[in-house]
Design goal:
By secondary structure, the protein is α+β, with helices and mostly antiparallel strands. It contains 15 helices and 16 strands. It folds into 3 domains: about 240 residues, Bira Bifunctional Protein, Domain 2 (BirA Bifunctional Protein, domain 2, 2-Layer Sandwich); about 55 residues, no CATH class; about 90 residues, 3-Layer(aba) Sandwich (Rossmann fold).
Length: about 425
């Protein structure tokens, strides 16, 4: 029996990896332009971090985490998200002692045990941004604008930002009481999960995708109905700044997000034509999270987006760049002596950082030329007994079918010139 990859994971093979690299470089580029620095944290953390940071009432903590005991009998969890980890790193490394705010981004794999489906995996990858140490509305607007700018650079235009304010602990307490009162007579109609949420976190009921729960909550009081003056002013300022930045948004009073730590602004970015899971980004403000995990009171705002979801959207809309040839030239060596001389030639070319390769199976001339063409090489560098006797190298243009001979002792210089002409063309 052959061993297969675990369910809900995928192998990213050559030809596909290049698409990921393009996406990741675009993300890094926009972050550089906005002044964000990359952070990398461990792939597993103490389980308590996510229990306290993400929230005991969330599906992530209750159902989806990969948790295990290590050899020291300590409970560890593969990271299901990265905001809590970034906040832990902020506290542990005393980044609060640096000039504030601290603006960070990350790209990496996350792990959740959930039912695999289109665009959803048990090992998936996220790009995210976190701003720690500033509570001004302009932070919210800048981060959302960064998301909007990233999608613009990728060519995604059929987008809409859904935005809401979930309030602060003061006004959320008022909303909680009103929402429970509204649902009290129809509690039995809620799905099992929402029945459990009624006492623990009734706000999450508004976010349930169950059709019955959605019907039950029609007309329910929203967080917008109970916003305090500070939260209302903050939200109005965010909307005004988004308008100035040209971000297309829609206020969605039912948007609450799935994590316990959100306060004030919450947002999602929706895109058409990629199936039922149409949200490709989500985030918001979390002013109490750093304090919750043992740090000083620190405001925060951030988002995360799944790379798999974005790649799916780019593929549907034919926005991924065509794969470029990987090789400039491939050495075609015929015989052991030619292979030795050719290996020396390739070593010299690689000191100039030229993308060159050679056949490693000692195949025939015809087979090696086919391999060079299949690998996308522009030129074949042919070296056999006859060329060794004449001390020349044959350079064949595989696109035009033309070829020239150059002295072996001038081959490196000539090939380097050809490469530079191609790069600058």
């Amino acid at each position: 029996m052959t061993i297969q990859r675990p369910k809900g994971t995928q192998d990213l093979l050559p030809g596909t990896v290049e698409q990921w690299q393009y996406l990741e470089e675009t993300m890094r580029s926009v972050c550089r332009d906005y002044g964000y620095d990359e952070i990398r944290t461990p792939m597993f953390e103490a389980t308590e971090l996510f229990q306290r940071g993400v929230g005991q009432t969330t599906d992530i903590v209750n159902k989806e985490m990969y948790t295990f005991l290590d050899k020291g009998d300590r409970s560890m969890t593969l990271r299901p998200e990265l905001t809590a980890s970034v906040c832990r790193a902020y506290v542990e490394n005393k980044l609060y002692g640096q000039p504030q705010p601290v603006k960070l981004f990350y790209i990496g794999p996350m792990f959740r045990y959930e039912r695999p489906q289109s665009g959803r995996f048990r090992q998936f990858h996220q790009f995210g941004v976190e701003v720690l140490g500033a509570d001004q509305a302009v932070v919210d607007a800048e981060v959302i604008s960064l998301v909007w700018d990233l999608y613009r650079r990728l060519g995604l235009t059929q987008l809409e930002v859904h935005v809401n304010s979930v309030g602060c602990p003061v006004c959320r307490t008022k909303h909680r009481a009103l929402l429970q009162e509204f649902l009290s007579t129809r509690r039995e109609e809620l799905c099992k999960d929402c029945g459990d949420r009624y006492d623990r976190n009734p706000l999450r009921i508004l976010d349930c995708k169950n059709a019955t729960c959605q019907a039950v909550t029609i007309g329910a009081p929203t967080t917008r109905d109970t916003l305090c003056e500070d939260c209302s002013t903050h939200f109005g300022r965010v909307l005004g700044l988004l308008g100035v930045a040209g971000v297309v948004y829609r206020v969605n009073p039912r948007l609450v997000r799935g994590l316990d730590y959100y306060t004030k602004t919450a947002f999602e970015v929706m895109v058409e034509e990629i199936g039922a899971q149409s949200a490709i980004c989500g985030g918001g403000r979390y002013d109490g999270l750093v304090e919750e995990i043992g740090g000083p009171p620190t405001p925060g705002f951030g988002f995360a987006m799944g790379l798999e979801r974005i790649l799916a959207a780019l593929q549907v809309k034919h926005l991924l760049p065509e794969e470029k040839p990987k090789l400039f030239a491939m050495l075609v060596a015929l015989g052991e002596k030619a292979q030795t001389e050719g290996f020396s030639l390739l070593s010299a070319l690689r000191t100039h950082e030229l993308p060159v390769s050679m056949d490693l199976l000692s195949r025939s001339l015809k087979a090696q030329l086919k391999a060079a063409d299949r690998l996308g090489a522009r030129y074949a560098l042919i070296l056999g007994e006859e060329e060794l006797e004449k001390k020349v190298l044959v350079i064949r243009d595989l696109t035009l079918g033309e070829q020239i001979e150059v002295p072996l002792n001038q081959a490196v210089e000539e090939i380097h010139k050809m490469y530079q002409r191609g790069v600058n063309a």
